[in-house]
Design goal:
This protein is an alpha/beta fold. It has 36 helices and 22 strands.
Amino acid sequence: MPRRRTSSSSSSTGSSTAPRNRTPQPVRVRRRTFGDVVKAFLAFVALLGLVVGVPLALATVGGWPFPDGAPSLDWLQREITVRTFLNILTVVVWLAWAQFTACVLVEVRAALSGVGVPGRVPGSGPSQLLARQLVAALLLIGAGAASLTPGLSQLGQGLEGNQKPTVAAAQQTPGVFSQQQERSATSAAGALAEQASAQSDAAADRAAAHGDTKYYRIQPPEGRHHDSLWEIAERHLGDGRRYKEIFALNKDRVQPDGSRLSEASLIRPGWIMEMPGDARGGELVEMPDEAPNVSEQVQQEIQDYARTGDHAQGGGAHGGGAHGGAHGGGAHGGAHGGGAHGGGQGDAEPGGRADGSDSRVSLPEQRPAPAPAPGAEAATESGSQSPFGLPEALLAAPLLAAGLLGALGHRRRQALWQSAFGGVGARRGMEPPTPTGDAQDAQDALLVGADPDGVRLLDRSLRGLSAALAADSRPLPVVYAAWLSNGDLHLQLAQPAGKPPAPWQLGQDQTFWMLAKDDAERYEDVDTAAPYPGLVSLGTMDDARLLLNLESVPGIVSLSGREADRAAVFASVAAELATNGWSDRMTITLVGFGEDLTPLAPNRLRHLDDVEALFETMAAETRQRRGALGAAGHDSVLTGRTGPAQHTRWAPHLVLLAAQPSDDDARRLAELAADAGRLGIGYLVGTESGDLPGAAWEMEITGEGKLLAPLLGLELDAQLLPTAQQRAVVELFVEADPERGSGGPADGGPGAAPPFLVDISEQGRPAVYARLVGPYEIIGLDDPDGERSAQLHEALALLLLHREGVHPRVLASALWPRGVTDDVRDALFERLRDWLGTDTDGSPRLRSDATGRLTLARSVVSDLDVLRSLYHEATQGKGVDSRAVRGRMLTDALVLVRGPLLADRPEGRYRWLGHEIVDAQLPLLVADTGLALSEFHMEKDRAEKAIEALNAALRTAPDDERLWHELLRATHATGDADRLRALADDLVGRSGARGLPPRTEALLDELLPTWREGAAAAG
């Protein structure tokens, strides 16, 4: 695709880093004129004549042209007269009238509904265009014609058959086109609403200036809806994120029922909330001395509550300025402060307390807060925290988060197996390091934001398309971009490629192939190469997510903007390409940046220091790929991916160059990239000026996080990975690296204790005991009633597997993967708290730690906790010095194992276990316990007891090679050659076509030299 230049692009080169002015401008509401009335009248006359007059004239002049009965053979032999010709012409006119009338009905229906794009009547382009213009002119006489006919001029042009560029044009984006029209149609109404809001804000500021103190009484639930501080702030302060101001004003103050507000998510009906001075909302916000709409009892409660404020206690409170909560809190929004704890010192601010008390407070510990309702969270600045303590950049990147989470789980499993089979000296324990600080927040954000189902559907859909095209002997089309909108997948092709294979359908034109979500869910895994591994997420527009296929771009893609903003985009692209689930393998070369990103995927990510090293590498690879394609007879890598060598050839190579190259280097890059799209090589290059010689596509990242590409018609909310989150994510991978550390206690080595040890003495009997290893069973609690029983059990299981604490949003996303409203979530947490009850000292068994994460009291224990504690005490505690204690503890530990984890869990629940590594930890723990008990018995030559312990462990860890080796040694120690031969034959049968592992073969050669004869006879 040749590079195109416009005046807009050239004029921006001098100030590419400056954000574009996108401040909403007042919209002038167009009033009806005399000309509009005349046009509407003429349109009405024309429509009346065409819709009503034409059939009347035809019926009067021409009569009914159709025959009265069925034609006979004689009718075909009659002479064609003038009358016959007129009848045929009349039929044609009748059909044209029917088609035009259908167009009028379609346009009127679409105009009156005001929703979506009018349907297209087949074969009626000019007729429908005329009908649309007449209907639009007629509606000019009504109120708000623009709102009734959204995007009228654009739709009219669409019928003229004008072809738009086949690049990733947002105007053609499925799921976005109609929403853009709705936005343009309602711009006048939006301007009026802004003006009204500005007037209301001015009135509120005047009220705040007078020092008015307002109060709100928590309303009882309506049906299943419970009030929350977020909704109160949204209704009466205009921004739900200002709930922290309300919390700060009322924290720890005595309520009418004697209790106190301690957590923002726990409020009760009948409580009184002091509101910031700019609160508004009618009769629900009351003045203490002017509350005519409430009872005397409520008035007295408000007056009594007012006397418990900060002026009575001498503490500082948070000033309720018009924008204090939304903008004054930095990364965390407003502050939790005031109340009985007092506040920090500072100068008074406008809009503060009328009594002159200090309105600035320090930030105390974070507490759990209600999650916003769907769609309530606004995008924050790059790298900022969300209002709930988790990185917004990771929450807003579901495909990136899913890839990182999957790669992290694989890395941790790899570390577990290497620690188990790498020898005692390198043992790092069965527990991965527990992340803390920013790394813990990043892990929680990955768990909340990840969309593994979306990745799975994308991967299966693309591979299924490739398999279907290969079955029809059709090549893969060149795909520039993919759009994900509400689960539907739209591929944007470089050029029309015919009708797609079912269940794919043509989209809005010949360059779009579309697959509905329901059809995608019916795809199964297929054994074919990933067709488009170079797809990577760039950002979102409304509800649609864009993935650009960097591999197919015909040349260089340039990215301009500030260095920090560019770095966040480059890091996001590199991290997703390195860990995504829809690519088999690839190489990502990072030039001049990203050396610290390589731990994410050492096999995919490669770092080069400068451009010269890049030229040397890529020149050789470009020549090699050209030659290999020519020798194979392929015109592009897409052809090669559907052939017999699809799994071994044509992996993409994507180059990310963050720093702007010189003009000479840019020209050399352009020469290398001239044929890159055909060779499966992509280039993304950063630039400060926005003008890169040889760039095919140009993009810009603004300081507000917008990704702009005017020539492509794109304006996205960019997907970013800012530096802070980048470091936190990399820390998770570095800590999980199996090669890291020396195996000592500081590194989680053999001496490291589990994160939660249970008192296994008689005095340590737990109040609540949950059996997770095998069928799920709870002892010490009554089974909860109602439809939420299954969710309560699931929530408790997740908390038991994470004794370090679970973020409320992580727990909510685990129980409701598709999302849930605040009231339902908070109600379940309250039920869980009530169900678990309190300890003998009155403290709740479900608590919140200093970071706001939910934790369980030590009196709530699982059999997995006991199993870990028994093994630790037997091998590193009391059992080290006492043989009797060691044997008893190891035996007790094996008795606890009743099967796999949560063996009877219902289908469709506990899907969060896919993100855990406990499924790998438990078999290793059981195997280690069996091996230790076997060694204990073999020390006293009790081979039968050792065999019994090993067989018990094999029921849970049947694939652990170490158990089979010890079982062979113990069986050999019995001296029964036939028993040993039977065991060897059983092992050979289990190995199948892949054969026995080399170490097992070597052990059999040592213990039973004739085992191969028996294997050959059985074969």
